[in-house]
Amino acid sequence: MTRKPPYQMPLAFYLGEPSTGPLKTVGGVPFSKLVTLWIPRQFLTSSDVDVEAFVEDVNEKLAKRRGYVLWDGQILFTPLKMSDSIELSYEGHDTLDAPPYRPWGELEREYFGLKNPYQMIEDYLDYTQSSISARILEPYLFANERISAILHGRKDNYYFYCQCHRADVVYTTAHRLVCMGCGAMHAVLRQPRTFRPKRVLTAQEWSDFFDDDGTRREEEIDLSILDFREVESIDMLWTTEKWEDAKHEFVFFARSSPEEIAEAIRGTERDPSVFLEAGWTAVPTSPPPALQVVGNSVDVDLMENAGHSIAEGVASYLAARKISDKLVTSVPQLFKGIELLLKSKLQELDARDLQDQRNTPTVLKRLAGTITDRQSCSAR
Ligand SMILES: [Zn+2]
């Protein structure tokens, strides 16, 4: 199956002042996860937090219990380091309602390999509204766990997006749903799905194939798809806030009328016009992995990609008046746009001519040949 060229989704926004350069993609450092931990009262003063002592306390709990169930159902296995880009959010001493106890029985013990991880409910009177977030380096998959399918709403014709805005949620050989964009666990299925995966990937291979700067992103790849409807309401061993939120959003956006959606997003961050009016710019981003492996109508994709390439090429060309470096982007994008338009035309005339993945000069020659043939046919 053919992998589509990058740049297809026009709706992504630079998170910075208009006119500043592009930021790094979500995730940044490969396989780093953002975790949030709430701080017990004993580490707070009237205006500050002893973050170091708190981090030490978390690490002691981890050393004793080997796992720490975070407020949202993620499980922390890795000790924190003061170098983990820790950010403090000081919200005072008000009590936080600790999340309810999560039953931890034989199945959980066996699945996670943890006898009795720490749960916040054990100190439910201590937690405050203050918290830290930390970016920890921790593998996205367990040892021996492999990616065996992409979670995708094929039947709903809608991508399954994680709350990190990436449609990179995968199903693994450990019957788990994990986002490869941010590393968050979404859910663990009680029973594995029975299918033969077309291919399995390690986390590193996933990153090589699908990340914006992945070394193999131009290679073809075929992966199995797990349809959202197959897991939408089945029995789960473990679920997280990420799963509940993403599922809720999927169901709403995939199955509501355009009017309902327009009404719901008006004035919110989901409404692109809010950003555009504020002077932000839409930038093309890579298509979701599911789009890259699902066979769509090729000529529609060629035309769409051509459109995006030309739009990007023209934008860079105009920007090059001020920043001459932009020509470096402009020229290849315009060239690519023209190439895709030619290929699309050639395919329309004779699809067989494209099967051998020819380059532009050959496409041009064939296109000229095909058009001349047709003209001489119609002239007769
Ligand atoms: Zn994510």
Helix-strand layout with pairing:
Blueprint: E1 32-40, H1 51-65, E2 68-69, E3 75-76, E4 87-89, H2 106-112, E5 118-119, E6 127-137, E7 147-152, E8 169-172, E9 176-179, E10 185-189, H3 203-210, E11 224-227, H4 228-231, E12 236-239, H5 241-255, H6 258-265, H7 272-277, H8 289-293, H9 298-319, H10 327-349, H11 360-379
Parallel strand pairs: 2-5, 7-11
Antiparallel strand pairs: 1-6, 2-3, 4-6, 7-8, 8-9, 9-10, 10-12
Helix pairs in contact: 9-10, 10-11
Zinc ion (ZN) binds at residues 162, 164, 166, 179, 181-182, 184.
Give structural notes.
With 380 residues, the protein is an alpha+beta fold. The protein has 3 domains: 2-6 and 8-28 and 140-280, no CATH class; 32-137, no CATH class; 297-379, no CATH class. The protein has 11 helices and 12 strands. The strands form 3 sheets. A 6-stranded mixed sheet has the order 11-7-8-9-10-12. A 3-stranded antiparallel sheet has the order 1-6-4, with no helix packed on it. A 3-stranded mixed sheet has the order 3-2-5. Strand 8 and strand 9 (176-179) form a beta hairpin. Helix 10 runs parallel beside helix 11 (360-379). The two termini are 40 Å apart. Bound molecules: zinc ion. Zinc ion binds next to loops.
Name the hetero compounds present: zinc ion
Task: Give the overall pLDDT as a whole number.
Answer: 83
Q: How many strand segments?
A: 12
Secondary-structure element order, N to C: EHEEEHEEEEEEHEHEHHHHHHH
Low-confidence stretches: 1-28
Shape estimate = globular
Q: What's the number of domains?
A: 3
Strand composition percent = 5-15%
Largest sheet: 6 strands, mixed
Report the radius of gyration as a whole number of Å.
25 Å
